[in-house]
Design goal:
Layout: E1 2-12, E2 17-28, E3 35-38, E4 46-49, H1 52-73
Antiparallel strand pairs: 1-2, 2-3, 3-4
């Protein structure tokens, strides 16, 4: 089962700190019991951890590094509003 938590990412600028919350999705592998985490609003921002706490720490670090790289490439990219993510259960007949 996937769990969604907000991950706060602080992006530093010269004059002020911008703090944004990004929903992060965590999924535990049934065999290895490791957690995989990704942030839908940051394409390619994926991490993992052997437990939930480690996965949370790792995705936070991955998001900070992701945004650091983006800010060096395109400073206006950080000013854009993040995409909205809706998580809803769906019912399927199998």
């Amino acid at each position: 089962m996937k769990k969604v938590y907000n991950v706060g990412v602080e992006t530093k600028t010269r004059k002020l700190n911008i703090v944004r919350n990004y929903p992060a999705v965590f999924e535990q592998d049934s065999k290895s019991r490791w957690y995989t985490a990704f942030i839908p609003a940051l394409p390619g921002c994926i991490s993992q951890g052997k437990n939930f706490e480690e996965a949370m720490k790792n995705i936070q670090e991955a998001a900070e590094l992701y945004l650091e790289v983006i800010s060096k490439k395109d400073k206006d990219e950080l000013k854009k509003d993040t995409s909205r993510v809706i998580v809803a259960p769906i019912q399927l007949a199998i």
